[in-house]
Design goal:
353 residues; Rossmann fold; OB fold (Dihydrolipoamide Acetyltransferase, E2P); six-stranded mixed sheet; 25% helix; elongated
Length: 353
């Protein structure tokens, strides 16, 4: 068992076979990230006791919540788990105070005591003046805070958050994200956050668990995952180009054709090759000079986001380059056609598969 949260489960939901093993230490925030349909929310619902597992075990703070070998399965209300759902699921017929007091009241705490605890939590998140208000009168950010303190006020051993910022607009999200991180930092138990938003995961979590097609494909702190992504989805998550191939003598023969010169001549065998889009330069004429990786390719897509321009180019291999708005205009990239790609061997990261 563990003082934190230990999960080792197998489940089947529709056509998805979910197989996840993870541990979250007390006081640690772990984000489960992955594409839609990967099984993230299913995992969270299993820990919460809302879905049974087909095989495996879930432990929390020295207690076994579920163990299919013995037939043990505690009901959701017996698990001492606080959950913040994507849509918050607040009781709009109750006041904000009564929403936050709900967890304490459901365990037998007297009404007056539960309300006092609720008022303390509401004061901590700046909502004391809204205690008598109905949740449907609040803004999205305020509703998110109510949902969080409703979970925390019950004094759970573990906190689960399912896409906690998804219901917020862009302008509110960054502010609430900072507030949420501060509140989670004060929570002594394990925290499991499910999200498909890379910024949210990187901003909130101490560690990432990547789930794709029901399987854990990578585990590590944000910096490690960003430096060494191990799948195309993770590479897109952290914004790098990821290629695969076989390394030998300072070069990598790519699986899809072509080759890349790399700085590490000691690498041999099957490897990942990561190149940041900012390291990729585009030219209308063949470049000269120091770059050791140069080839001709066709522009496939141009995406403009304020002062950042991402240009997808096809070829062997296909890559994404990130250039300035000035380069977009100077090279007339929006017109399409062929360009020359270049990047230095020193800008390539290589690591074993």
């Amino acid at each position: 068992m563990t003082d934190g949260l230990g999960v080792d489960v197998t489940m089947r939901r529709g056509t998805l076979d979910l197989r996840v093993e993870l541990d979250v230490a007390a006081g640690e925030i772990v984000a489960v990230v992955g594409p839609n349909g990967a099984g993230k929310s299913t995992l969270l619902q299993a820990v919460a006791g809302l879905l049974p597992v087909a095989a495996g075990r879930i432990d929390l703070a020295g207690r076994t919540l579920e163990d299919t070998t013995t037939g043990l399965r505690l009901a959701a209300e017996e698990r001492d788990v606080g959950v913040v759902f994507q849509d918050y699921l607040l009781f709009d017929h109750l006041s904000v105070r009564e929403n936050v007091a709900f967890g304490q009241r459901s365990t037998g705490t007297p009404r007056r005591t539960a309300r006092a605890i609720a008022d303390t939590w509401l004061a901590r998140v700046g909502l004391a003046e809204h205690a008598a208000t109905r949740p449907d009168r609040l803004s999205g950010g305020q509703r998110q805070r109510v949902a969080l303190v409703r979970a925390l006020a019950a004094d759970p051993a573990c906190l689960l958050l399912d896409e906690p910022l998804a219901a917020l607009d862009v302008d509110t999200r960054s502010t609430v994200r900072r507030e949420l991180r501060d509140h989670l930092a004060d929570f002594a138990g394990p925290v499991l956050v499910v999200t498909h938003e890379p910024l949210e995961a990187l901003a909130l979590a101490d560690r990432l668990v990547v789930v794709e097609d029901g399987q854990v494909t990578q585990v590590g702190d944000a910096a490690t995952v960003a430096r060494h992504p191990r799948s195309d989805w993770i590479a897109r998550l952290v914004g790098v180009n990821l290629l695969t191939g076989t390394a030998s003598g300072g070069a990598v023969a790519l699986d899809g054709g072509g080759a890349v010169r790399v700085p590490d001549t000691d690498q041999h065998g099957e490897v990942f090759v990561a190149v940041h889009p900012r390291s990729v330069s585009l030219h209308r004429d063949e470049p000269t000079g120091s770059p050791r990786n140069v080839w001709k390719a066709a522009i496939e897509d141009v995406e403009v986001d304020q002062d950042r321009v991402r240009v997808a180019v096809g070829g062997a291999p296909s890559l994404v380059a990130e250039v300035t708005a000035a380069a977009l205009a100077d090279l007339d990239l929006a017109a399409g056609g062929d360009v020359w790609i270049s990047f230095k061997a020193a800008d390539v990261t290589v690591y074993p598969r």
